[in-house]
Amino acid sequence: MKKILKNGKKAVAGLVLTMMAVCMVSSMAQGAVDRYGKRDKDKKGYYSYTKVSSYDDRGYGHKLKVGAQIVGGEWSYWENSGTADIRSKSVSFFADARHSYQIGSGDKVVWIRN
């Protein structure tokens, strides 16, 4: 009985250590996200510009989908790996600039930056 209990403790300890290692690797693989957004003006009016970069800890670019919109206008999207940027269509009125990005099939992140 003592031997079974001792082996059981070893198995549980090994399982816990394995789970900790898996959690650390998955969090490191996420990497850092650099995002930039602005509202600017051209001859036709105002537009939104978004640029996002994201790489894992090995230097491989994440699959990105970025978006740009002037509130009241249409969203414009672009997909790329590593770095992606997009400019929205211009609108004749002054409004907030919205920006978005999505890494792979993850959650979409939206922010306003003028």
Structural class: alpha+beta
Number of alpha- plus pi-helical segments = 1
Taking the sheet with the most strands, its summary is: 4 strands, antiparallel
Number of E-state strands: 7
- What is the helix/strand order? HEEEEEEE
Percent of residues in helices comes to 25-40%
Which regions contain 5 or more consecutive residues with pLDDT less than 50?
Answer: 22-29
- Spatial ordering of strands, largest sheet: 4-3-6-7
Using the CA coordinates, give the radius of gyration.
Answer: 22 Å
Q: Span between N and C termini?
A: 69 Å
In short:
This protein has 1 helix and 7 strands; from the N terminus they run αβββββββ. Strand 3 and strand 4 form a beta hairpin. The longest helix has 29 residues.
Please provide a written account of the structure:
The protein has about 110 residues and is an alpha+beta fold. Helix content is about 25%, strand content about 45%. It is built from one helix and seven strands, in the order αβββββββ. It has a four-stranded antiparallel β-sheet, with no helix packed on it. It has a three-stranded antiparallel β-sheet with strand order 1-2-5, with no helix packed on it. The longest helix has 29 residues. The chain is elongated, with a radius of gyration of 22 Å. About 5% of the residues have low confidence.
List the helices and strands and how they pair.
Blueprint: H1 2-30, E1 32-42, E2 45-55, E3 63-70, E4 76-81, E5 83-87, E6 97-103, E7 108-112
Antiparallel strand pairs: 1-2, 2-5, 3-4, 3-6, 6-7
Give keywords.
114 residues, alpha+beta, 4-stranded antiparallel sheet, 1 helix
